[in-house]
Each structure stands twice: as structure tokens, then as C-alpha cells.
Amino acid sequence: MDATPSPIKRKRVAALLLAAGRGRRFSAGTTEEQAAISKQFHLLAGQPVIRHAALALLPHVDYLQPVGSDPLLPQALAGLDVLSPVPGGAERHDSVRAGLEALAALPTPPDIVLVHDGARPYVPAALITRVLEALEHHEGVIPALPVSDTLKKVKDGIITDTVPRDGLWRAQTPQGFSFPLLHALHTRHRTALTDDAGLLEAAGHPVAIVMGAEDNIKLTVTEDLMRLERAMQSQENQPTPPLLPRVGLGYDVHAFAEGRKLILCGIEIPHEKGLAGHSDADVGIHTLCDAIYGALNEGDIGRHFPPTDEKWRDMDSARFLIHAGELIRSKGGMLVNADLTIICERPKIGPHAQAMCARLAELLKVHPSRISVKATTSERLGFTGREEGIAATAAVSIMVPDSGV
Fold first, then answer.
1. Which listed site, 44, 65, 217, 280, has its alpha carbon 20 to 30 Å from 156?
2. pLDDT for 281-299, tens place per residue?
3. Which residues form the 2-C-methyl-D-erythritol 2,4-cyclodiphosphate synthase domain (predicted)?
């Protein structure tokens, strides 16, 4: 999709991505396991439905807040620059309220919030731009399409009335609002409404309409998957490239040095010596960065943070790993897993391995289950056996979109 930048750069924009619904009318599987999967996590063009929605929103927003407690949600959004998911509620308005509360708790809350259904995967960039532009003049804006079909009221299979379609529109998402207003209305009112525009309407605030898009389909029934596949494969809208696996290996060595703290995998380890190096000499993070850069064909850590540059002297290596993670996301990729081995006689790594995994996962913005840290010795052989230094190896698996070359 065309990632047209948001025209509203002077205001901070956030989006809620709702993923708490079950989709009772949808079933795309024959086994009990497949039938139990919520519709937003089914695969579409090789990726989860909700991931497509997130990728459509991210170029336009400063924050993307997923809402939902399904264990598949973090996995579906892995590697993307999103906030940690917050649990949703029993009803849609409960989930929106939970997301708004999470945004309100940020150090700098947004000025504008978009509310989008995770089951709407195909959102043209131009539609999002129309909503944001209209929010320069209105407190609430929704995309919608005029009703073109004749509408009938039916009871027990018999038509009871024909509904005039003049002035009727089909509402879509993302719907956009002034964040302070929507947050205040959700705080004061617990009314169950099908969308947030209804909350503004009930409170007497006008809501504007911009033209929606026919391909902005909400996945409701199984047949919608086929419609969405066709939309993504049309000539005007190229299909989302499939994710292909890439593997990277890293290896690094640092000698022990007096008078320095020992930093390994982002945490300080009690030891009588630290490691020598231009930065903080975190051998675990350095080898992990090299593995990531290798998988992405981006050289090594020295290419990005040369030791000849004084600005990196004594630098916290966390910055290097943050950069490596951002590079994965900038390519539309995701880290599948990382496996590190620390090679040393002392200190003992086992007591710190869990904390190391948690810190590395935090820096890479992935779940700790995707990170493994373990240790081994060299049986008193070589420089590590003589306790002259520490070595580390790393292997990573990354999924990136197929570039076609």
C-alpha cells in the first residue's frame, strides 16, 4: 500500500487497534483448533489479518496501541513498532475505553486518536489521510460509503417495509477523534454503542463524514477472505509480499579489563573485572547485533557504530541493539527468535539468564519467549579457559518481505 505520510505533523496522532472480538459469524477452518482462532489472526496473503491493519496505520501515527488479550496478538504484531497490548473488555466500548486509558497514561498523550477494527486489514493510505485532514476542522470524522442498494425490513422471512436509502451511509474505520474529547466521553458514559461516532452524536457533538473505500472490507464471514485476497492482488493494489526467512550468525570476543563494570546482555553482572572495549564492551549485545545485521545483509556492528568514532566511547550497547531492532522493523520484518551462547569460565551466567532475556526482549520490542541466553565453558582450554576474556555466539531467525531479487 502507498505509505503516504500523515499531513498532521504538528499534532501527535495515536491509533487504537481493536483485537478483542471473537467474530462469531466467521469460521475459516475445519478443525477445532482452526475454528477457535479469532478472525483477525487468520492468514491473509501470508500474514495475519491484523498485521495488515497495523502496517496500514503505522506510517500515519506516533503511537499504535493494540487492544486485546489473545495470546496470538503479540505474535501477530511481532517486530512492529507498537505499544504493548492492553486487555480488552466484554464489549467494543469497553475495549476502546481500555485503549484510551492506556494512551492517557503515556508521558505525552496524543492530540488525535484513530479507532480501527483489527478485522479490517486493507485500508488505503488515502483514506487515512482524508480522515486526518478532516480532523483539522472537526472533532470527529468517520469514513463511510453511501448506501446504493434498496433496503428492506424483514420479519419471519417476509418483507415488512422498504427503507428509503436517501441519506444513508455505511460506516467504516478508522474513525478519528479529538483524543481529549473521546477520552472524556468514554470516562463519563458507559453506553453500549456500535461505534464511537455514536458516542459523540449522543453528546451533541457533530461528526463529519469523508469518503470511504469499497476495499476497506471488514472480515465478517469466510467469503470476505476471498474478496480481500482479490483486492490485494488487483492491478492497482499489489499483493503484500510474503515473508521469507533469513538467518544470521554472530561471534564476538572481549578481553577482561581492570576497573570496568561487567555488562552482559544489557545488565550489570557482579564480577571483579569488566570487559575492554570502545563502548561498554557488552559482548552479548555485540554478537546479537552482528547476527541481526548479517541476516539483513547490513554488514557488521562496526559499519554502523565504528570504534574510531569518539561519540561511541563508553556508550551503552543497548543503543546498538535498539538500532538493530529498528532496522528489522524498517524493512517490514520481524524477529522470530534469537539464541545466544556466552562462553566463559566465570562468572556463572545461569543465575542471570532470565534477566538477560527480559532485557534483550525489551530492547528489541519482542516477547521474552523469542530470546534464549545460555552459557558454556571451554573446559579450561584457550583464552576463555584461562579467564582472559569472554566470547559469545548468536544465531537469529528473521522474517522479511520478499524483495523479488
1. 217
2. 999 999 999 999 999 999 9
3. 246-398
Which runs of consecutive H residues, i.e. helices, occur in 334-388? 353-364, 382-385
The answer to whether the annotation marks 21 as part of a ligand binding site is no
Q: Is 116 within any annotated ligand binding site?
A: no
Global confidence as pTM? 0.56
Q: Return the closest-CA partner of residue 195 out of 93, 53, 103, 65.
A: 93
What φ, ψ does residue 112 adopt, rounded to 5°? Answer: -130, 145
Q: How far apart are CA 5 and CA 32, in angstroms?
A: 42
**Residue 300, marked binder:** yes
Residue 301, annotated as binding a ligand:
yes
Per-residue cell: 36: 477457535
DSSP 368: G
Residue with cell 433496503: 151
Residue ranges of E strands in 133-189: 140-146, 151-155, 158-163, 169-171, 175-178
224 is in an annotated binding site: no
Cis amide bond preceding 347, omega within 30: yes
Report CA-CA distances (Å) from 189 to 8, 104, 195, 200, 204.
29, 17, 13, 11, 13
C-alpha cell of residue 245: 526467512
For residue range 22-41, list pLDDT tens digits in order: 554 444 443 344 445 788 88
Distances 273 to 201, 257, 278, 347 between C-alpha atoms, Å? 66, 6, 16, 10
Q: What's the grid cell of residue 253?
A: 570476543
